[in-house]
Amino acid sequence: MDDFEPLATLRQPTATRPLLGLTVLVVEDSRFACEAIRLLCLRSGGRIRRADCLASARRHLQVYRPSVVIIDLGLPDGSGTELIAEMNAMTPRVGVILGMSGDDGAEALARSAGADGFLAKPISSLALFQESILQHLPADRQPSGPRILNEDEITPDPVAYCDDLAHAAEILGEDHDGAVLAYLAQFVGGLARSAADLPLEQAARALARTQDSAGTSRSDVARLAGLVQARLSERIAI
User: Fold this and answer.
1) Is the Cβ–Cβ distance between 71 and 77 less than 8 Å?
2) Which DSSP category does 8 fall into?
3) 165-190 pLDDT, tens digit each
4) Cα–chain center distance at 127
5) Which of 27, 114, 120, 215 has CB 3.0 to 4.6 Å from 57, enough for a Cys bridge?
6) Pairing relation of β-strands 78-79 and 74-75?
């Protein structure tokens, strides 16, 4: 099934809702980051579908062809660059493929895999989000006439942040190998950047450095676990 449905052709984009008629598939494991994209799509007129891993995204793409795909590079079952490369080689190709990450150097990786563009986390600017998609769409899928750039910033629901913290705490409470800890460091680091939580981000980076050096520091894991539990306790108290 193609998400460029006949009905969608009747829903022409407007200056205030420039993504009207488009379906955006977000491949993202963080509920907090996905909530930000959901709000940006809602304000822009686009519909959103979500996949939280590569396997889920591939199952989705067997049934639907979205208009736009936004793919996080750090996913629990592999790198988002794998899916970007697969989708870039598809015929017919999805109209717009964007990579997404908060890591340094991620944009170059996404573009070399075949992404049309890149979104750097945290993503909160409505104007930047819309322009990142619109600049890659054909003229007949864009709003006609002048469009005023909307400088609004969106703020995701804190409940989604708590959900991500709980997910991290669950992983930290299990036995972990190096691959799991590397993923966890990336996941919590991205979450912390999106939430402007510097101490949590620093703890995640410390764990990532340990994994890069092919070692596992119990103190780094314990520090990160303690901070995650403290954030959860603060949220519960609120």
Assistant:
1) no
2) G
3) 999 999 888 767 778 888 999 999 99
4) 17
5) 27
6) antiparallel
